[in-house]
Amino acid sequence: MAVKNEGFSRANHVGIVVTNLDKSIAFYEALTGLKISNRDMIGGDRMAHVMGLDKTLIRYANLHLENLNIDLLEYEQPAPTVAKYDNNQISAMHLCFEVDDIQKAVERLKKAGIKLSGEPIVFQETDGLKNGYGTAVAYFDDPDGTHLEIIEPKGPFQRENTK
């Protein structure tokens, strides 16, 4: 008999609010090499209430990665506002994609016209880490400024294969 997961040991999805659903679908499909699995609209009083809003109407699309889903959300109601976060601001978040070869991933990003925030780095002892040397990272943003990262993990940054 399977034990139900009543804890918080798995993530299901990350939701990203976007200004233009079609443009964001094109970006995330190019980024991941995957196609969206679902596109729909949701809203109404019950949805607004559970979200703590007066009203809501959202156009959305779902993209299924191996271990996490990405929900792209374009709000029609209430009218969206733009949030601007720097990486060091409290409550700022980013989504990180794990890759096997960061150089190949960077080449792919550049070919797709995606500009990196800076060239990739490989963690060394001089970066203040006690472990994880050899881990490589690079950062970039989606069309709406959502902070994204790619990581080629080593040492404690590696997770057990969950397949």
List its traits.
single chain; 163 residues; alpha/beta; 2,3-Dihydroxybiphenyl 1,2-Dioxygenase, domain 1; 2 domains; 4-stranded mixed beta sheet; 3 helices
* Strands in their spatial order, largest beta sheet: 1-4-3-2
Question: Would you state the CATH class of the largest domain?
Answer: Alpha Beta
- CATH topology title of the largest domain: 2,3-Dihydroxybiphenyl 1,2-Dioxygenase, domain 1
Using the alpha-carbon principal axes, give the shape. globular
What can you tell me about this protein's structure?
The chain contains three helices and eight strands; from the N terminus they run E-H-E-H-E-E-E-H-E-E-E. By secondary structure, the chain is α/β, with parallel strands linked by helices. The two termini are 19 Å apart. It has a four-stranded mixed beta sheet. A four-stranded mixed beta sheet has the order 5-8-7-6, with helices on one face.
Task: Give a short synopsis of this structure.
Residues 10-153 form the VOC domain. The chain is an alpha/beta fold and 163 residues long.
Helix-strand layout with pairing:
Blueprint lengths: L12 E5 L3 H12 L5 E6 L1 H7 L5 E8 L4 E9 L17 E4 L3 H10 L9 E2 L13 E6 L5 E6 L11
Parallel strand pairs: 1-4, 5-8
Antiparallel strand pairs: 2-3, 3-4, 6-7, 7-8
